[in-house]
C-alpha cells in the first residue's frame, strides 16, 4: 500500500469549502474524482484541515492510500489536467506509511488580506476584505501580541464548531503592510472553526477604535463569542502552509 501526499492550491470562491458535502462542489470532491479517473479506483483524501466556503489555499496538504504504483507525475500533471483552473496539485510525494495529513501536522500558517484602497479593486475582490478608512496599526499590533501563547480560544470560534477542546497555541501573529494591502499572518499549532476570521474581525474593530487593544486578554479569559468581533469575510483568508 502506497501513501501519497499532495500539496494543493485553490481559489475557494466558487466552492462550498474543502469537505465533500451532499450538495455543492467541494475541493475534496473534485480531486477525489480526478484521482479516481487516474487510478481506476475510488480513493478517500484525508486533509490537514477543512477550509470553509470562499476560503483559499496555497498549501493545503492531503493524503490518500492506493495499491497502484503510478509515477508521481500522474498525481500532479495527470490530475491537474482533469481539474478546473482554480484548483491545482502543486506537489505529489511518497510519504511514510504512518503519515497522516491531519494528525502528523505540527502547525499551520494562515494569512488574512485587508485592502485599504479608496476604490474597490476588481483584481483583489476575491482575495481581500476591502476596508475604507484608516486603521490604527499600532493598536492592532498591540492586540495581536496578546494572542500569542497557549490560550482558551472559545470566544474566537463559530457556533458550529464541533471541536471538543478550545485550547490552542499561537506561535506568532504578524502584521505586514504592502502598499494598500495589509496582511495578518497567524501561525499556530491548530485552529478552531472560523478562529482566524474572528481574530481578524476583532483586530479590525481595535484598528477602528471600537474597542481597546487590551480587550483581547479579556475575551481570552471570558470565552464569550458574543463579546468578540465580527467574523471577517471568508474571501480574505488563505491557508499558506502546513508544517510536519
From TrEMBL:
Keyword tRNA processing appears in the UniProt entry: yes
One Pfam assignment: PseudoU_synth_1
Pseudouridine synthase I TruA alpha/beta domain segment(s): 8-103, 144-244
Domain of life, source organism: Bacteria
Signal peptide region: none
Swiss-Prot/TrEMBL catalytic activity: uridine(38/39/40) in tRNA = pseudouridine(38/39/40) in tRNA
Amino-acid positions noted as binding substrate in the UniProt annotation, renumbered to this chain: 110
Residues of the active site: 52
Recorded GO MF terms: RNA binding; tRNA pseudouridine(38-40) synthase activity
Assigned EC number: 5.4.99.12
UniProt keywords, alphabetically: Isomerase, tRNA processing
GO biological process: tRNA pseudouridine synthesis
Enzyme class of the recorded protein, top EC level: isomerase
Alphabetized InterPro entries for the sequence: PsdUridine_synth_cat_dom_sf, PsdUridine_synth_TruA, PsdUridine_synth_TruA_a/b_dom, PsdUridine_synth_TruA_C, TruA/RsuA/RluB/E/F_N
Alphabetized PANTHER family for the sequence: PSEUDOURIDYLATE SYNTHASE, TRNA PSEUDOURIDINE SYNTHASE-LIKE 1
Oligomer and partners: Homodimer.
Similarity-based family: Belongs to the tRNA pseudouridine synthase TruA family.
Primary role: Formation of pseudouridine at positions 38, 39 and 40 in the anticodon stem and loop of transfer RNAs.
Protein name: tRNA pseudouridine synthase A
